[in-house]
């Protein structure tokens, strides 16, 4: 049995689950995963029993005879970065690392309007004009962050990710790439290439392929 077990929510909409799952997958370790359908009463109960925060994602690691629980997407990324330094889940260069950490934290704590007006709907395509001023400002901010990271570090490193190779910052912004695809948000060409890199990544595609097989999610409570 693998030492790592991740608990996730509905793959189609649980952006926080994807944000933790992707760095785990990129770490290259074997892991088990359990989908918690937290809108069903018995799953809700299980979620509350297993997760200290009552939320997913949750990573459980059997480590030297102890069970380590790490909840919250960003904390899971940090834990993996500590465990697997060779994967450079944060960029090695301190200036790039500061930028990556800042943009990951900004995603973790901000972009309220973007979340509200462009909720993750991984398998849907419903282009629309974004009218909300704050949501448009959030989109412009993401665009600027992606372009700055790509132009300053990503392109020089040669890889397709924000800082060249995959980092936690890419995990944090992957759900945003899906939202831009769902709602037909147009970005300038540099960032469009980055979006393509996210959406065609084999690990991301594995998540999406499983989402297609998952049974439909239960409706939100009234
Ligand atoms: N800040 C948390 C957010 C976690 C979160 O809100 N998870 C949602 C699923 S995307 C959840 O567990 N919802 C179930 C509930 O609140 O009952 C993180 O970064 O992991």
Walk me through the structure.
A hairpin with a 2-residue loop joins strand 3 (58-63) and strand 4 (66-71). The radius of gyration is 17 Å and the shape is globular. Helix 7 crosses helix 8. It folds into two domains: 4-84, Glutaredoxin; 87-205, Glutathione S-transferase Yfyf (Class Pi), Chain A, domain 2, CATH 1.20.1050.10. The protein has a four-stranded mixed β-sheet, with helices on one face. The chain has 222 residues and is of the alpha+beta class. It has nine helices and four strands, in the order βαβαββααααααα. Helices cover 55% and strands 10% of the residues. The relative contact order is 0.15. The structure holds glutathione.
Key terms:
Glutaredoxin; Glutathione S-transferase Yfyf (Class Pi), Chain A, domain 2; globular; 222 residues; four-stranded mixed sheet; 4 strands; alpha+beta; binds glutathione; 2 domains
Helix-strand topology string: EHEHEEHHHHHHH
Uncertain segments: none
Portion in beta strands: 5-15%
What is the β-strand count? 4
The global form is: globular
> What is the CATH topology descriptor of the largest domain?
Glutathione S-transferase Yfyf (Class Pi), Chain A, domain 2
CATH architecture of the largest domain: Up-down Bundle
Number of helices: 9
List the quaternary state of the chains. single chain
Q: Which bin fits the share of residues in helices?
A: 40-55%
Domain module tally: 2
Largest sheet: 4 strands, mixed
Q: What top-tier CATH class of the largest domain fits best?
A: Mainly Alpha
Q: If you compute it from the alpha carbons, what radius of gyration comes out, rounded to the nearest whole angstrom?
A: 17 Å
- Strand arrangement, largest sheet? 2-1-3-4
Whole-number average pLDDT? 96
Cofactors, ions, other ligands: glutathione
Helix/strand structural class:
alpha+beta
Straight-line N-to-C gap: 39 Å
């Amino acid at each position: 049995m693998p030492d790592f077990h991740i608990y996730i929510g509905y793959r189609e909409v649980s952006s926080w689950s994807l944000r933790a799952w992707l760095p785990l997958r990129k770490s290259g370790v074997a892991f088990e995963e359990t989908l918690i359908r937290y809108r069903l009463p018995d799953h809700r109960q299980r979620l509350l029993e297993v997760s200290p925060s009552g939320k997913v994602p949750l990573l459980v690691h059997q480590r030297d005879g102890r069970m380590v629980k790490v909840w919250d997407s960003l904390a899971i990324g940090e834990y993996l970065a500590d465990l697997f330094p060779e994967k450079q889940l944060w960029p090695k260069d301190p200036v790039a690392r500061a930028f990556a950490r800042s943009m990951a934290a900004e995603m973790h704590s901000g972009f309220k309007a973007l979340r509200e007006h462009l909720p993750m709907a991984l398998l849907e395509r419903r282009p629309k004009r974004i009218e909300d001023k704050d949501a448009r400002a959030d989109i412009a901010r993401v665009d600027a962050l992606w372009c700055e990271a790509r132009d300053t570090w990503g392109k020089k490193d040669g890889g397709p990710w924000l800082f060249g190779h995959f980092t936690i910052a890419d995990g944090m912004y992957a759900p945003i790439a899906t939202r831009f695809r769902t709602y037909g948000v147009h970005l300038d060409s540099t960032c469009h290439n980055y979006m393509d890199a996210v959406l065609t990544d084999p690990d991301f595609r594995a998540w999406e392929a499983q989402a297609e097989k998952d049974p439909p999610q239960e409706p939100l409570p009234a």
